[in-house]
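Entry 14. Structure prediction run on the chain below.
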Amino acid sequence: MKITAVEQFFPRPRIRLVKITTDTGLTGWGETTLEGKPKSVSGAIEELAEYLVGKDPLRIEHHWQHIYRSAFFRGGNVLMSALSGIDQALWDIAGKHFNVPIHTLLGGSVRDRIRVYAHWGIRDMSEAGLQAAKSRLDMLREKGYTAFKGGPGGKWHAHEAPAVIDQFVKCAYTMREWVGPEVELCFDFHGKMTPALAIEVCQEIKGMRPMFVEEPVPQENVDALKLVSDHVSFPIATGERLLTRWGFRELFEKHAVALIQPDASHVGGISELKKVANMAEVYYMHTMPHCAIGPVALSACLQVDAAVPNFFIQEQIDQSLGEGMLKDPWQVQGGFIDLPTKPGLGIELDEQFLAEQCTYREELGGEFYYEADGSVADW
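Output returned:
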């Protein structure tokens, strides 16, 4: 079996796909979405296609090693996003070739279903804000979700006035009042706080018992992250912007967090996601793969979630379930998705969806400035 073609698709915002075709007719799909850099990853895929065409798609590890190591400059978010999508597509082909789900090839499933959480929160205490939050919560609870993630909106300075902090704290406690003690709540700080501010805010919300706080500070400085963890009584999480095992090594060695969030479309695909999870197990850290893009990426995550013992919970957003994109979208029942049973990634993409062509608009980035002085802001 040989690879005959590598194609790319951009059907929806924050969904970019790669399709690998073989001379046997088998095809594999991967997701290469890198928000804010669509042309960069597309160019990388075109370069890598020159290597892949004519190769055996079942030599997955060999291709991973070549793509990662053959260039003098290794890693980086563009190369790793391209490699991640290619790796997913190769695993999809392998599963279809052997007529089994990918998790069977990864050693078999260690659970019968996969717990997921949804995005939900109260962004402000206005009547309109509360009504919007209540409506979405009612919709999600009908599906049986038992965990939700929100976060403080807007741009935060190195420190904020009590009114700003109190607004978020009130939202957090109101969320707890609405859902009760049986539901888990977590918060994404989006890497936009300083260690001191993150610690202060975490201390203010600890009474409502968060499941975790994600990215309290930017990911570049592991010691700053550990500083937050050491001063907070509940779990701290990070990892969506870390790439490869090497990117997680220091985090593990310093026990800087309790939970990790590698992204299957950035960390290095299915191959690397499982390796990172296996490394984390040694440090008694659990995985919560990040997934805030499309249904192919979520499908890749689910395959690894099924096969690693230290899996905790899977992130997903509405569009990653695949409504209008997959012929059989993923279904959430009681807060879980059933174990994938079909060959490969376990999905079939809708042809009408693939025929769509999206015009790019800014994703997870753009120009963000503090209104007070015009300086660049994290958001």
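DSSP finds twelve helices and 13 strands in the chain.
Filed with the rest of this week's runs.
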